[in-house]
Amino acid sequence: MFKQFFYFSVILPILGFSQHQLKGVFSPANEFKATMLYHLSEGNATYMSYGTVNPQGELQIELEASAPSGIYKLVYALPQADHNFEFIYDANHDVVFNFNIDSGVEFINSKENQLFQTYTQAINNAQKELLQMYAKPSMDSRVYKRRSQKVDSIQKRYTLLSKGTIAARFINASQPYIAVKVESSDSYTKNVKAHYFDAINFKDQVLQNSNFLIEKSIDYILRMHTSSTPLLQDYKTNIDTVCQQFLTTKPSFQLTSFVTLNDLLIEFNQETVALYLTKTYILPLAIQLKNPEQIVKSKDFMRVALGVKAPNFEINDQTSLYDLEAAANYLLIFWSSDCGHCLKELPKVYSYLASHPEKDIQVVAIGLEKTTEKWEKTIKIWPEFIHVFADGKWENKLPKLYAVEATPSYYLLDASKTITSKPYLLNDLMNVLDQK
Questions:
Q1: Among the three residues 277, 303, 329, which one is the final residue of a domain in this structure?
Q2: Which of 210, 232, 258, 361 can bridge 8 by disulfide, Cβ–Cβ 3.0-4.6 Å?
Q3: pLDDT one-digit tens code per residue, 140-163
């Protein structure tokens, strides 16, 4: 299930001049050493402070009187993108929290953070109770009505409680679809999807300054399907719906948002869906905005995305990749004779394939080299591989053609040279090969 985070931000005038603190307790304590605090505004993360976690797991950061109210991000480990949480600071109160590596963050004070956190928990639980009705053989209309009214009551209660706060913008925008009468499972599912964005104003600058819109959009793309086994076209339709919502915003904001969605789709193993988003929306926007860096990134991704035919290249003077016809699958390995990881991994790949001839996989090993001497000596131990000498190492056209950023890199192709897998680690490759 898609992991939920609290994404929201807004910049308000400083209402006071007293100094406050960010205080928290991490557990287990020995898992945490240091933190970095950032202030988020308009897509930028401004570094604010560094904090150490003591042996008891305690953290305390002094917030300067000049620190603006708004959304902050606390990074507690590397990589930063995977180890952080966000919170509201209103410039009037301390922010105190407990953080558990398994269950996440719990705010001990701070009305803003507690409101949104308790609202999210309450509304989610109430919706789950309502959905449980559809798992029963028969529907009790009275119970259904009570549970539906409970969802409505929670929404109204927190809308009132949060009035005048930053959190109110997100609580209001999170309002779910509430059925006014008993509906069949199919009707309810269709209506939830149809009304998913009703409460969200994509022009709202407060929402734009947060990741709230991204969170809602990726949830819609991946989860809002009327079929339990959605097809690629279903995902494409959802992307079109999401992108129509973003069309009300500035093109620069659209591009930033679409790129973020693209990265998330890839992270959730939906690269073919990401390819549609890139071709249909990201690349045209990048061209419109004359953004050369994003144009290059988009074209690189489209050229070697899952499901596309791998770029052709010469193996020798007489043969190209497309000329190869002897195997059911082809494994491209970008490596170098001076790469320690390569010299550890390639023998394992060679040994595995030698002991599994039924896999019918031909390896094409592209050596990124500056000289031939070491390369020629090394390749002798892998005679079954087809070897390609890529002169100039990283300056050679082949790593650029395949958007290779590190060695070794793996691309698995089918007989038609379509890219079927891009394992990142050796274990990933072995898992894919086991399934062949």
A1: 303
A2: 210
A3: 899 999 999 999 999 999 999 999
